[in-house]
């Protein structure tokens, strides 16, 4: 960053009822953080000791920058902790998973049932020749079998690489090839808004000339069942039914790979982020317990797809390692109507709800009459992830959904970090617009390009200064790219986000550093301008890009989706400019505003400014197969 910039930080603070903190797993945030800082290894060791290991570790951490080994020489299997532990420890008949289909179908699995399904499918995979260390690609809709497949891989030590079922064949092919997948597990089709989404057809295209692929496992959920033609295609349930029912968990080393997950592609080509067994298990278990405050009678609904890191960590491995009850739903938020999700919360007494700001803003657009039709009083904790939760969306989430009684955990983290890194611990004062402070166990800071901390109120780069258990270990086939994360700013892990800290150490995420605009020598986070625009009553969503300007470096162009009931006009443009000026100051004023009906987004809902910019400037878009308007 050429120059630091000042950010106005004053705003409201919300304090949860004292009982929240009293009854929470985390207890007093500051005391807990102090405890960690004093004895970091002992802190992580205490958490790891809550889980079951086949053999204990020699050392908690072996760190040779930028390479970390956590819980060295320890032996474990994550599925032992997600399944066996509960089946033999009093949760045998507890509901592990509730699944809701797009068409209103319902399936419920107890821990015992899930355990049996996973063991059978694990044996099915073995019968196809899958061995420890092999890579298996999972390309499925949001069905229970998707999670069963993930756990079955982990059971036998196969490395899963889940590709979100919304990706196209190019994206799938490049991932299958990069990961050298031996098996692809898919389904005939997914369901979205009452319509079939053909998945098998996409796999057929993707595996042409993918020499690593030996078998394709197909879940046939539609009737009449789709025909399987070639001998490399096998039926999901058939390989289960012919398999033995018992499958002992493979003994894995703490540092053996657990999965590869490709990042969504907001920047350049997809990177295969590699996570390992021991550290990832400890990190996701810990944050599910202490950041979501998961208790035995909770029902946790994370609206992400298991194909994203959010789903890996907070649908599958975190909650199940805690013995929690998860709810998953194939449904779209506004199908058949914008009350769909609120109806689910009422029906199943969901207590922990985790979603993305983009969804919250969409619901704001539909109006509060939708959530107000349902009884949402079961809700206890609300979570947000994926992009900054702007103060207006926070307020709406807090009052309309949480009825001013649920703490909001705005969790900042990444595919690479595996677990939450920043948030406001439940029970602590909440500041709209701020993700919060580092999770105890994480050392985070906002620094300049030399790695020096910047004063409160000054923007800088968000870095993580010390290793943590669930950090990625490498980028598959590209260790050089891995090292860059730890060698760009001092010796710190650079997240690629811009942030600002306040006097209390709360961190506000301003946006990606690669989306920073430099206007007349000032750095402006596009997310900042977007947040300002979205705070105007007429704006549902906003995307801001920098356009090269001979005088100012960048000039700001904003693309706006209006809320229902507002009409595009020149008068409204002037109002918005004035609004941004009042919020952020004259340097942040958009020189151009365009009203649009949709914005290009990644499947995870992040606005692709790179694509908007390329379109605007008439540049080649490259591969945009992973986009959704
Ligand atoms: C990037 C990581 C981690 C799960 C979902 C996305 C942005 C994530 C927040 C948040 C502001 C956030 C960051 C980060 N991000 N959470 N709470 N506030 N920004 O995972 O695709 O790996 O993206 O998402 O820019 O670097 P991902």
Q: Please, could you describe this protein's structure?
A:
The mean pLDDT is 92. Helix content is 30%, strand content 24%. The two termini are 31 Å apart. It is globular, with a radius of gyration of 24 Å. It folds into 3 domains: 5-77 and 256-511, ANL, N-terminal domain (Rossmann fold, 3-Layer(aba) Sandwich); 78-250, 3-Layer(aba) Sandwich (Rossmann fold), CATH 3.40.50; 520-617, ANL, C-terminal domain (GMP Synthetase, Chain A, domain 3), CATH 3.30.300. With 629 residues, it is of the alpha/beta class. Helix 4 crosses helix 5 (111-127) and helix 10 crosses helix 11 (309-321). Bound molecules: 5'-O-[(S)-butoxy(hydroxy)phosphoryl]adenosine (WT7). Residues 263-264, 309-310, 385-388, 410-415, 435, 495-497, 509, 512, 604 line the site of 5'-O-[(S)-butoxy(hydroxy)phosphoryl]adenosine.
For this structure, the quaternary state is single chain
Strand neighbour order, sheet with most strands: 5-4-17-16-18-19-20
Number of folding domains?
Answer: 3
CATH class of the largest domain: Alpha Beta
Supply the helix-strand structural class. alpha/beta
The CATH architecture of the largest domain would be 3-Layer(aba) Sandwich
Shape: globular
| Ends distance | 31 Å
Largest sheet entry: 7 strands, mixed
Structural Rg: 24 Å
Please estimate the helix content: 25-40%
* Bound ligand species: 5'-O-[(S)-butoxy(hydroxy)phosphoryl]adenosine
Which percent range describes the beta-strand content?
Answer: 15-25%
CATH names the topology of the largest domain as Rossmann fold
- Unreliable residue runs: none
Mean pLDDT: 92
CATH superfamily of the largest domain: ANL, N-terminal domain
Number of helices, where a helix is a run of at least 4 consecutive DSSP H or I residues: 19
Number of strands: 34
